Amino acid sequence: MVTLLDGGMGREIQERRPEAAHGLWSASVLLDEPDLVVEIHREYIDAGAVVITTNNYSTIPSYLGKAGMQDRYRELTRLAATLARRAVRESGRAARAGGKRVAVAGSLPPLEESYRADLVPPPEISQPIYQGVVEALRDDVDLFICETMSSATEARTAASAALAHGQGKPVYVSWTLDETPGRGLRSGDTVKQAVDALAGLGVDGYLFNCTHPEAIEAGLRELKALTTKPIGCYPNRLNKVPEGWTLDNEITTGLRSDLPRHLYVAAMLRSIEAGATLVGGCCGIGPPDIRALAQRLG
Would you list the DSSP string of 183-197? Predict the structure, then answer.
C-alpha cells in the first residue's frame, strides 16, 4: 500500500502572496495569515494527501534571529502544528469515517541552511534546539519527520531528539541527496553511512526529499537493499540551487521546465517500483500535482 504525502508549502505561499516573499515570509505568514496556511493544507488533503507536514521549516532560531525573534521559535513552531491540526479537523478527515484518517507530520528541519552540510551545528548545539522543536510540535502531530537532512550526523541528532522527547510517536528521517545520481548525500556521506549512523535508534522509516527525482530513484534502489523498514520520497521541482541561496534572501532558484506534471507522476511511479511506499512532493510540487498522482494511484 502506498501512502500519499503532501507537497511543498513555501512556494504555494509565494505564488498566492508574491508581496510576502521577502525576509522571514514563511514564518511571518503563520502570524499574519494563518487562514492561508490552513487553506493550503486543506487543498493537499482535498487532493488526496493522507499526511500533511507542519509549516515550521523556517521557524528556527538562526532565521528568526535575523529579525530579533529567535526567542519565539517555540511559539511559532507550536502555531504551525496547531494550524495543521485545524486543517485536518476542518477537512472532516480527523476520524476514520468515509476515508483514510489524515496524519500530521511534525517537521524537524535543518537548523542553518538547507543543503549545507558544512554549516550543520555540532550535536551539543543542535540537540537542545531540536528538543524545543519536538516539544512545541508533539501535542498536535502524529509523527515526526527529520527532513532535508544533508549529513548522517545531522540526521542522527534530529532523530535522537524526536525519539527522546516525542512521547513515543513515530520518527522518520528524510535525507537530501547530491543531484548527481549515485553520489550519496550532499555531505558526501554514502546512503549506507547515513543508514548505519541511525543504527540502534529505532527510526520508523527512511526517505529522500528536496532532490531531483532522477537522483532519488537511484537512492531508493540503494536504500531498498539496506533496510526492511518503509522507504519513500518527496522530490522537488527546483532548478539546481545557485551558490549563495538561502531560505530568506533574494536569490531565486526557479522551477524546472522539463518536469511537467505527467513526468512528475511517472517519476513517482518509478520510485514506487524501486520500493517507495511513501510518496509526495517538496518545493515546487503543488496540490494539482498531488491530485494527479492520487488519481493515477487510484
Answer: S-BTTS--HHHHHHT
What's the pTM? 0.94
Kindly give the confidence (pLDDT) of every residue in the chain, 298 residues in length, as a single tens digit, with 9 standing for 90 and above.
999 999 999 889 988 887 665 557 677 889 899 999 999 999 999 999 999 999 999 999 998 998 899 999 999 999 999 999 999 999 987 654 345 799 999 999 999 988 899 999 999 999 999 999 999 999 999 999 999 999 999 999 999 999 999 999 999 999 999 999 999 999 999 999 999 999 999 999 999 999 999 999 999 999 999 999 999 999 999 877 656 655 555 556 678 788 999 999 999 999 999 999 999 999 999 999 999 999 999 8
Distance CA 50, CA 1 (A): 12
- The DSSP code for 116 is -
Cβ–Cβ contacts within 10 Å for residue 87, how many? 23
Question: Could you write out the DSSP letters of every residue in 28-58?
Answer: HHHHH-HHHHHHHHHHHHHHT-SEEE-S-TT
Q: Which of 51, 50, 65, 52 is nearest to 12 (CA)?
A: 52
Tell me 198's DSSP state: T
**CB distance 146 to 159 below 8 Å:** yes
Interatomic CA distance for residues 159 and 144, integer angstroms: 9
Measured distance CA(221)–CA(182) in Å, rounded:
10
For residue 7, which amino acid is it?
A: G
Q: Which three cell numbers stand for residue 173?
A: 528521517
- The 10 Å Cβ neighbour count of residue 41 is 29
